[in-house]
Amino acid sequence: MKDLAGAVICALVGLPSADRAELARAFAAGTAMTSMVRLGRPRLTPSQVARCRSVLADLTAPAVRAYADGDPSTVPGRMRELGLTESEALGAVAAFVLTGTETLVSYVPRLIALAIDTGWLARLSLDRTRLDDVVNEGLRFTVPSPVMLRSVARDAFVGGKRVKAGERVVIATISCAKTLGPFDPDRPHSPALRQLWFGAGAHFCLGMPLAYAEIRTVLETLLGLDGLSIVERRVARRVLIPAYERLVVRCG
Ligand code: HEM
Question: 2, 65, 124, 210: which has the fewest C-beta neighbours closer than 10 Å?
């Protein structure tokens, strides 16, 4: 999943395609940054900021070339065409690298484990029309991006609660989604939840269609294989987004 999500992002943002070791190194650098985020602490320390800046400068350096080349099939090239500056383009590249990999690296193995554990993978082999129900219910049940963080710009009331300027608000999407109960793709999708796991409003996930394309690609590939079983699983520790550190699936 790291290879797939990493390669897709590289192609999208105009970074040269990297080998497995480089993708793994870039992924580790990204999770080292996101793991610095603490729910109760609204800011990074100056040394953390310096570390993040240097890691991001390293990760996005090749995008400077993509911006200079101006190829509109890449994000930096398109942004240049639209009149945005190089630093704005690099900001977008950094956002894509961070948002477009860890979420999928977390979600897809969790979805596969859920589908195997609950017998849904076998059911899908017989009836692929239910694939989207399984994918959407898996997103609802796992909520790969479990919370959204906001800072309060000025004193206000939100949903009847008083919030003060400078405070941090943690929107626990996972709590909202989990109220529906256990993983059950047969349950009709609740319109009230919309697709809260992709956010809401102005910051709704920009990569949702890409995420679906990658998730479906992996699931459809697995459906073409016989007798899948999980032979090893290990949960990742000290990460912002819950994930398996290792999930080994055997075929046949
Ligand atoms: C299962 C996979 C994914 C999930 C669950 C997910 C979830 C989310 C959520 C909840 C937000 C809103 C965060 C907030 O408001 O604080 C968001 C924003 C965003 N996502 Fe995703 N995402 C996924 C995959 C991707 C992919 C593959 C990309 C590809 C580039 C991507 C790009 C973005 C970007 C750029 C934003 C920021 C949008 C903005 O602030 O205007 N996401 N995502």
Answer: 65
**For position 125, what pLDDT does the model report?**
92
Q: Which domains does the chain have, with CATH numbers?
A: 2-250 (1.10.630.10)
Mean pLDDT value across residues 80-104? 90
Distance 178 CA to ligand 1 centre (A): 19
Atom of ligand 1 nearest to the CA of 5: 27
Q: Of 194, 106, 183, which Cα lies nearest the Cα of 144?
A: 106
Q: Is residue 227 exposed (0-12), middle (13-18) or buried (19+ Cβ within 10 Å)? A: exposed
Q: Is 109 in the pocket of ligand 1 (CB under 6 A)?
A: no
Q: Is the pLDDT of residue 194 over 80?
A: yes
